[in-house]
Structures are given as structure tokens and as C-alpha cells.
């Protein structure tokens, strides 16, 4: 199921969440499923994210509630390690706002996490094939099952996750000041579109609920509301 609501207040969010719960359980869909780019895209030239010191973003760094579950945002990512299941999200969310107010680019090396401060740079290792990448976490999610991280399409492709949809991974938060050494390709501009047409059937990410974090702060009409959505395969 997919739901997309922009610029709504918390009262509206609560009503929509309540009304949509039965639909989520029944597995029905209200809009097109998520998936990979419709065109061929050579992700081999896209370099890993380069860790650098950045202040925490003004948006997306307060504790929040999604689907009646409370999530605590860490004040620091120092020493953070976690193992679990990774999923990915693609073209449905391409060009939409992330939790910290940036624009999601499925061709960039980014990811979503429920608790790490935004942004956080992290090394993600696929425990099934040994591949590793570095991503910049700038979004919240996934809110489905036991998944711990939602990768962008390109990050998932480089890690070997796209076809299977899910993978066992380890997340290691990186300290930019430590100048962590991680093998990466030469810097290259990150595209926002792909051009080469493909007749291949595009893989689709596994169901991964995405929703508006209900921030524990005063809500005004000027607040930028995040998206409320649910992805279900």
C-alpha cells in the first residue's frame, strides 16, 4: 500500500493513520508500487559518500512517533554498530523530501535509519557477500518488521541488495574527524536521471512502511510536514 500526504498537521496525520490501518493489514494498494529506475543506470561510477563534519540538520532530529510507536533519536552516532535486515526504496520517492528536508535522490549514496542523528555517515556491509559501501543517512525509516536501514536504489545496487530486496547487513557509524579509510571510486557527479532505455523488468523493493515522524514539538502551519506512506509489495 502506498499513501502520500503533503503538508498536513498532526491531527490530520492521526486520522489518516487510523483510517489506513485496516488497509495496511489487508495489503491493498492505493497507488503504483515502488521500484528501480525504468531506464538502465550504470551505478559503477558512483562513488561512496565521503564522510565530512556536518552539523545536525534542523529537521528530523527530534524524537517522533510513527504508527503509535515512539522512536528516540540519538544525540550522537559515535561508536554505533548494528546488525539486521536492510531494504531499499526507489523511484516512487525520487525527488520527494527526506526527513531532514533534503530531496531524495535514488541515484545518490544515501539511506534512512530510525534512530541515528541526521546526517550520519555509515559503512554498511552485506554479511551475505562481504560487499561494503559508505552512505550518508538523511532520512527516517524503514518502519516495517525488523528492518534496520532503508538504502537508496544505487546504494542497494552496489551492495547487491536490489534483486533480493532484503539482505543481512552490519551498520557502522563513521567519525569524519578520524578520516576513515574506505575504498571508493574517484569522485563523480551524482546524476538525478538516467537516459539509456531498458526493456528489462525492473526489480521492486520489499514492502517498507514510510510515514511522517510525529515530532514532539509544537506544530504550526509553517512547519514542513514529512510524507506519510506505506510501501507494500
Short description:
This protein is of the alpha+beta class and 233 residues long. It has 2 helices and 11 strands; from the N terminus they run H-E-E-E-E-E-E-E-E-H-E-E-E. The chain has one domain (10-215): Beta Barrel (Barwin-like endoglucanases), CATH 2.40.40.10.
Report on this structure.
10% of the residues lie in helices and 22% in strands. The radius of gyration is 17 Å and the shape is globular. Strand 6 and strand 7 form a beta hairpin. The protein is α+β, with helices and mostly antiparallel strands and 233 residues long. The strands form 3 sheets. A 6-stranded mixed barrel has the order 4-8-5-7-6-9. A 3-stranded antiparallel beta sheet has the order 3-2-11, with no helix packed on it. The protein has helices spanning 10-26, 153-159, and strands spanning 39-40, 64-66, 69-71, 81-89, 110-112, 120-126, 132-139, 147-152, 167-173, 196-197, 214-215. The chain has a single domain (10-215), classed as Beta Barrel (Barwin-like endoglucanases), CATH 2.40.40. The model is unreliable at 1-31, 180-188 and 216-233 (pLDDT under 50).
